[in-house]
Specification:
The structure holds two protein chains of two kinds.
Chain A lengths: L2 H36 L1 H4 L6 E6 L8 E7 L12 E8 L5 E5 L10 E3 L4 E3 L6 E3 L4 E3 L8 E2 L1 E4 L2 E5 L14
Antiparallel strand pairs in A: 1-11, 2-3, 3-4, 4-9, 5-6, 6-7, 7-8, 10-11
Chain B lengths: L1 H15 L1 H9 L2 E2 L9 H20 L9 H10 L4 H28 L8 H24 L3 H15 L5 H9 L6 H33 L16 H12 L1 E2 H27 L24 H9 L5 H22 L11 H23 L23 H12 L2 H4 L16 H4 L2 H10 L13 H12 L3
Antiparallel strand pairs in B: 1-2
Classes of the chains: A alpha+beta, B mainly alpha.
Chain lengths: ~170, ~475
């Protein structure tokens, strides 16, 4: 092999590497905003808000009430999907418990059966007592609770992500 | 005129190479006797094309936004000309695709067509199977009624059981902490762009591999696959006995696919699309989420498996299934192909099919779900012919306290608990009280819920059921 052709080969090698390198750079630059859009939910700042769900006098001691509120960060185009619901139980003059409506088994909406004093899940037959503990069926944990406070004579719930049951998780 | 047309065709043909390149592919030799067992794969392809076309048509009428999608579905179903039929075709097309993918896969497995040299055909097929299931699931979500909303929550919960990253996966799926504005946009992107693109790519690969490796010849007991000699043998066999794919083999594919598509359209016209459940409001809690039929076996499995192993099996089940499917051609890629000589293959297929169909049947019945819409027992349906006030009260309480949601008496009530029509014959008053106070298994303990009088009334009623 003479010197000339060796030079030729190293030139070609250089251009091949250059072209692949520049193409890779271009792909990477385009990928950054694309991947950001894909994983957007993981990049968003987590946000929690206190939401008023009623006046203190709206809830009688010993009752469990259906309340709705708007999620922490509703987009203007969310429509009805901005809403969440919870079961608010007034335990005494000062104290409330707010149960998430999601069954801890697979997240289906539990409903409060007023006469029976039970929460029941339509999906796989999960049942909970009025205090949220499991009464029967597949749920592995008691109903998840939201934080509640009384503020200016109004009852407020702190928004939270959909409660996700995972191995080792416990109710708050 | 004819001359001019001929001239134009010759020019196009010369510049594009259709006769030179495409015709040989259409006419490539295939093994003889590859008959009706071989039509399912192409039927899936034609169903997919039908799905693409009807999907594009639906996208002309659909609003992919969390806020408006439901309204646009009502418009498609009730107002748009043939919108109802269009939705129906897309739904029954999806159903047919899932069934035909299953049959195609069973056929390939039973005739061991995945063996040498077609391992990659199988692997690309498994990827297409997973894409098809994912399309079925996301398609159900795009209906964006209460079922769609709650199905996505259920899916997020399942992903959430993954150790360590579960919470992030759930958040990723929902597009945020909760269902909201981002959720539907993401499902739409998956269902309409990302996964279809994957399907196009892998259908391309799958078909290329069918051409490259040839259609597997119908197996014959005793004719073994030896990777060292198979390719030469196959080539010679085609040379001697091969028939052109078009039209000798392809007419069956065409006919079968056409019949399937006509059946799909017929079902859409006759039965219509699945009804929409309520609006997509996560704050409406009186909804009973029910998945489309092809998701029902999974849903049933979660009701029936022992609750203790649930978290583990929710993760390991799908992972193991996928690993096993991918490894099948590597476990054995040579030797016998005939199902007659592979009885365990037949046994395995029967077991899996019976398992899935049983889950489907029991899942459609969902005996574990409380029957919230059951009516209070009329006095004509109880055993006591002359009930006193305690029994009448008991009948009312049996309904009001939720007993009837799960227990059947006569034709009224749910299926989760034992039928109590003749419970008075089996249990004494004392035994009834013990059961009700303590509950058990899936029954709540009513000790802290019922007053003494309520308990006595219910027991009086149940004791009279003899």
């Amino acid at each position: 092999m003479n010197e000339e052709s060796e030079k030729e080969i190293s030139r070609r090698k250089f251009f091949v590497r250059l072209s692949l390198g520049v193409a890779g750079l271009g792909a990477a630059a385009a990928a950054i905003p694309v991947v950001s859009a894909l994983i957007a939910p993981l990049l968003e700042k987590k946000n929690q808000q206190w939401r008023t769900v009623g006046k203190l006098d709206d809830f009688q001691t010993g009752t469990t009430n259906f309340v709705t509120f708007i999620n922490a960060d509703p987009k203007p185009y969310a429509g009805v999907t901005a809403k969440s619901a919870a079961w608010l139980r007034r335990t005494d003059q000062k104290n409330f418990i707010a149960f998430a409506a999601n069954c801890t088994h697979l997240g289906c909406p539990v409903r409060w059966e007023k006469e029976a004093h039970l929460f029941m899940c339509p999906c796989h037959g999960g049942v909970y007592y009025a205090d949220g503990t499991v009464a029967g069926g597949p749920p592995p944990f008691p109903l998840t609770k939201y934080q509640v406070r009384v503020f200016n004579n109004e009852v407020q719930i702190k928004t939270a992500p959909v409660p996700i049951t995972h191995i080792g998780s416990k109710s708050v | 005129m004819r001359k001019t047309l001929n001239k134009i065709w010759n020019w196009v043909d010369d510049r594009t190479g259709i006769t030179e390149n495409v015709v040989p592919i259409m006419k490539h030799p295939v093994p003889p006797k590859a008959t009706w067992a071989y039509v399912f794969g192409s039927a899936v392809l034609f169903c997919f094309i039908l799905q693409v076309i009807t999907g594009i048509a639906l996208s002309l009428l659909y609003q992919p936004s969390s806020k408006d999608a439901y309204q646009s579905l009502i418009f498609i179903t009730n107002t748009a000309k043939f919108g109802n039929v269009l939705r129906g075709i897309h739904y029954y097309g999806a159903s047919a695709m899932i069934i035909l993918v299953g049959i195609h896969m069973i056929r390939v497995y039973l005739t061991a067509s995945y063996k040498f040299p077609r391992e990659m055909n199988w692997i690309s097929g498994v990827i297409l199977l997973l894409c098809t299931i994912f399309m079925g699931f996301t398609g159900q979500l795009l209906r964006w009624d209460s079922n769609g909303v709650w199905s996505s929550v259920v899916a997020a919960e399942q992903l959430g059981r993954t150790p360590f990253i579960g919470k992030y996966l759930a958040r990723f799926l929902l597009g945020g902490d909760t269902i909201g504005a981002q959720s539907l946009s993401r499902f739409y992107s998956y269902h309409v762009f990302m996964v279809p693109a994957m399907i196009f790519i892998f259908v391309g690969i799958h078909l290329y591999l069918v051409i490259r490796n040839g259609i597997s010849e119908p197996p014959k007991a005793g004719r073994l696959i030896d990777p060292k000699t198979y390719r030469v043998w196959y080539k010679n066999m085609l040379k001697e006995k091969g028939v052109p794919f078009w039209p000798n083999a392809a007419w069956r594919d065409t006919l079968f696919s056409a019949i399937i598509i006509i059946c799909i359209i017929g079902a859409a016209v006759i039965f219509g699309p699945p009804a929409l459940s309520g609006k997509p409001d996560p704050a409406v809690l009186t909804t009973s989420p029910t998945p489309d039929w092809y998701m029902v076996p999974f849903f049933a499995l979660f009701a029936l498996m022992p609750h203790k192993i649930e978290s583990v099996s929710m993760l390991l089940g799908p992972v193991l299934t996928v690993v096993i499917l991918f490894s099948i051609p590597f476990i054995s890629n040579r030797g016998e192909r005939s199902p007659i000589k592979r009885p365990w293959a037949i046994y395995g297929v029967i077991c899996v099919t019976v398992f899935v169909i049983s889950l489907l049947v029991v899942g459609l019945k969902a005996p574990w779900s409380p029957h919230f819409n059951t009516k209070q027992l009329p006095l004509s349906a109880i055993k006591s012919t002359n009930p006193d006030s305690t029994i009448v009260q008991g009948v009312h309480l049996f309904y009001a306290k939720g007993c009837e949601y799960c227990h059947k008496i006569n034709r009224y009530g749910g299926l989760d608990g034992p039928d109590l029509t003749t419970i008075g014959r089996r249990l004494s008053i004392q035994e009834l009280k013990v059961r009700i106070v303590n509950g058990g298994k899936n029954m709540p303990a009513y000790g802290g819920i019922l007053t003494k009088e309520e308990m006595n009334n219910i027991v009086a009623f149940l004791a009279s059921q003899n």
